[in-house]
């Protein structure tokens, strides 16, 4: 009984909102590509050796399609022969961005059968706020890896002032970097097997989930054989309860970060670039791959990119109905359900499910837990060990 009580107290210390989330938006099946924008430009953010195709060209080149299993395929060109020469030499790829943006009070779930991998390959499923210059509205990296990495890496990027404490008791992953304002961001590395690369594909893929609340950001990964019951073929219209999911891979509790101050509603991006500032860094590339990033991979017939593709069953967004209502936005700073935001002369974004009010204080809710200092958590862990000792 004491051990059970201590476990519950430790869960409370996370600051998680253990709520049931209602379906909000689903990208899957024949309509998967509805609701996304195609980048249609070179990689001018991470400077990879790719050209992201527009929608018409991506479908014409069959770099995007829905396969016979009903899953979305998003791939890198692996059939064109490229030779060295003057000018820019890029391989074709795809970058997708959701037309909708999702704010606090949202749960994002992606079920992937296959994630791109291989030397020079840099896939990512991430988000950013488009309202102000990066990283003023925050960035969240949910899935990211390079070259021969064997594990997924989660990160947040913010302006100065948001810190990730290395509290091993609140997550299963390993904190690599704590300052979210550095170029690398505040990083948590997955320690479970099969989260990235050939092992991920061999296991049949898996599910990643991101919970965004004023009381913290939390990320889970489940390999296909280890899926919780409510993630095994869930209906897109079913409520999703996260209470049984256990300890997250990455926990960003609000101890040293007021999330409503650092994160605006997030647009989600799914892409694969090649080489670039991370995968193409000579020192990092040589850790797991032979030769050089450009000459050994970009050039040639492209057959080395046979595994550089996403196969996605669905991306789903859910909202926390304990914090949100269906009432329209009010001038008093009530919860925002949908709101069209002007971003640039050629672009607008629809904000979905943002629970922030006019101020930056976390919303009060029966589903929100109190925060317990990390020192007390350590004492509770010690007490738990003592009570379980023979």
Give a structural overview.
This protein is of the alpha+beta class. The protein folds into 2 domains: 1-16 and 371-390; 19-368, Jelly Rolls, CATH 2.60.120. It has helices at 2-13, 55-60, 197-202, 259-262, 276-279, 282-288, 293-298, 374-388; strands spanning 20-28, 36-38, 41-42, 50-52, 64-66, 72-75, 91-93, 95-102, 106-114, 121-128, 139-144, 153-157, 174-175, 186-189, 206-213, 216-223, 240-241, 250-252, 266-274, 309-320, 336-344, 347-354. The strands form 3 sheets. Strands 2, 8, 10, 11, 12, 13, 14, 19, 21 and 22 form a 10-stranded mixed sheet that branches. Strands 1, 5, 6, 9, 15, 16, 17, 18 and 20 form a 9-stranded antiparallel sheet that branches. The longest helix is centred in the C-terminal third of the chain and has 15 residues, at 374-388. The radius of gyration is 21 Å and the shape is globular. The two termini are 16 Å apart.
Q: Helix count, per DSSP?
A: 8
Structural class assignment: alpha+beta
Rg (CA only): 21 Å
Residue-averaged pLDDT? 85
Shape: globular
Q: Can you summarize the main beta sheet?
A: 10 strands, mixed
* Beta-strand proportion: 25-35%
CATH topology of the largest domain: Jelly Rolls
Order of helices and strands: HEEEEHEEEEEEEEEEHEEEEHEHHHEEEH
Give the count of structural domains.
2
Through-space gap between termini:
16 Å
